[in-house]
Design goal:
This protein is 18% helix and 35% strand. It is an alpha+beta fold. The longest helix is centred in the middle third of the chain and has 14 residues.
Length: 509
């Protein structure tokens, strides 16, 4: 059986996966501290269930369609559907969620983005809580919150996560569920799944963690999904995945199915990723992801030229476009480079690199190892540092990269004489293969020139100008035209020692 054909991201209409990762009896290396006995599941459910939310959305288009149905056709349809199992034909779109924060009388529910996406065509969003009366062993009290007291705090389509904010009524006692470290989840650990499958409120199922680091295809952001055999069905999307300590280790996201119903395989977004995105959505209203500023392709697109790079395997990411003044541009990445590692982690495909960069925090520095061809078609290895900016929404990113392509950023840069005229020295591209450092090596300094006045000497290696890494004379000229707050900063190396020269931009006129 071809499993890859069965893996489907869940839709708002209900192809949702609801998973929970729990841990077996306490043992060395496991993150759950509670042992497994006949009362364990009961105690976990009592702790977690009051914070699990049923999310219901009734699209206007469905109500309008129902009103237009002929009575006879509607009755025939209803009876036919009942003969097939009693599924309600105009059931509201539904999903699940979990409270992850309570602050100043407001609660915050984490769910999947595809659960709330029908809000574009709806006028009603309801949250249903299921709780026990004091001393009761049954969850027989429900609280429904709807209307203006419920709002979408933020949606992240890229990662299929969303946060719903709601005003906590006085009659409702709710507490947030903590996150566990999902990196510590082990294959074989017990799991509990809580949610709203097939509109059956607050259903609980159990299973084990079947696998880790699953990847469902390039249209899914996460490449480290948790797989479980806990029973999930349409309506479980966005529900929490908890361990035996009652902590979230995943948010249910997808199932592998040929029928749209559960067939023993389901997936969850790792809790560490979900927690980071949820925090951004609650604090900023958007997910703040790292952005490098390159368009990429598979290295096989180089075809005959791939042999020049002398790679052991045809793997890595081919840089096709570098956005002007992006972190990649400032770091010195160039079209034609093949990126092999990000912070020591091997990347073999464009989608893999996209996720690796996107999961980094804004303003973080990443180390990028790449191979580049010189003008003589000789491969050189470089290690460049880039400070990531914030990734914009997907439409803005696509538009920016298309505009950059129209400007011809992927051109071959040509040297000119402008540096020699204004700065008074000549340089040539140079790579120190031992240290994997690139820059412009000074070949001559004119007496009385700006370069001589600043103390530069023949043999110095100029590595950056105004924060822009240098590989060609064109790089230097672009940096020269873009001073920082009215001044220039030039970094260079001499005899293995690094130094920084700063001077006013007005003096170079």
């Amino acid at each position: 059986m071809n499993i890859s054909k069965l893996m489907k991201p869940l839709t708002a209409a209900g192809l949702a996966a609801f998973l929970t990762v729990a841990f077996p009896e306490s043992a060395p290396g496991q993150s759950a501290t509670r042992g497994l006995d006949e009362r364990t599941y009961i105690e976990v459910v009592r702790d977690v269930l009051p914070s699990v939310v049923n999310i219901s959305i009734e699209p206007e288009r469905r109500r309008a369609q129902a009103e237009q149905e002929d009575v006879e056709d509607l009755l025939e349809f209803l009876f036919e559907r009942r003969d097939q199992g009693g599924v309600r034909p105009f059931r509201s779109v539904s999903g699940s969620g979990v409270v992850v924060r309570v602050d100043n009388g407001k609660g915050y529910v984490l769910t999947n983005a595809h659960v709330v996406s029908p809000m574009r065509n709806s006028n009603e969003l309801s949250l249903t809580f299921h709780q026990r009366e004091d001393g009761s062993t049954h969850y027989d009290r429900t609280t429904v919150i709807t209307g203006e007291t419920v709002r979408i705090a933020g949606t992240d389509e890229f990662g299929d996560l969303a946060v719903i904010e709601f005003d906590i009524p006085e009659s409702l006692e709710v507490r947030p569920i903590d996150f566990a470290d999902s990196n510590e989840v082990e294959i074989g650990e017990h799991v509990l799944a809580l949610g709203n499958p097939l509109d059956l409120n607050h259903t609980v199922t159990r299973g084990i963690v079947s696998a880790k680091s699953r990847f469902l295809g390039s249209n899914i952001y996460y490449d480290q999904l948790l797989q479980t055999d806990a029973v999930i069905q349409p309506g479980n999307s966005g529900g929490p995945l908890v361990n035996l300590d009652g902590k979230i280790v995943g948010i249910n996201n997808a199932i592998a199915s040929s029928s749209g119903m559960w067939q023993g395989i389901s997936f969850a977004i790792p809790g560490n990723d979900a927690k980071r995105v949820a925090t951004d959505l609650m604090d900023y209203g958007r997910a703040r992801r790292g952005y490098l500023g390159v368009s990429m392709d598979h290295v096989r697109e180089l075809q005959d030229r791939l042999d020049y790079y002398e790679l052991d395997r045809p793997e890595g990411v081919l840089v096709t476009i570098v956005v002007t003044d992006s972190p990649a541009d400032l770091a010195g990445i160039r079209p034609g480079d093949i990126i092999k590692e990000i912070d020591g982690r091997t990347v073999t495909r464009p989608d893999e690199m996209l996720r690796e960069i996107a999961r980094k925090t804004v303003d973080s520095e990443v180390s990028i190892r790449l191979v580049r061809l010189t003008e003589d078609l000789e491969p050189v290895w470089l290690t460049l540092d880039a400070t990531l900016s914030e990734r914009a929404d997907e439409e803005s990113v696509r538009r920016l990269h298309m505009e950059e392509s129209d400007r011809g950023t992927a051109r071959i840069l040509e040297d000119s004489d402008e540096i020699e005229e204004h700065f008074g020295f000549t340089v040539e591209p140079y790579v120190d293969e031992d240290s994997e450092t690139a820059g412009l090596r000074v070949t001559e300094v004119a007496p009385g020139s700006k370069a001589a006045e600043l103390g530069l000497q023949e043999g110095d290696l100029v590595t950056s100008m105004n924060g822009r890494s240098l590989w060609s004379v064109d790089d230097f000229e672009r940096a020269w035209r873009q001073p920082i707050q009215g001044g220039h900063m030039l970094r260079y190396e001499r005899d293995g020692e690094r130094d920084l020269i700063s001077f006013d931009a007005e003096e170079d006129e």
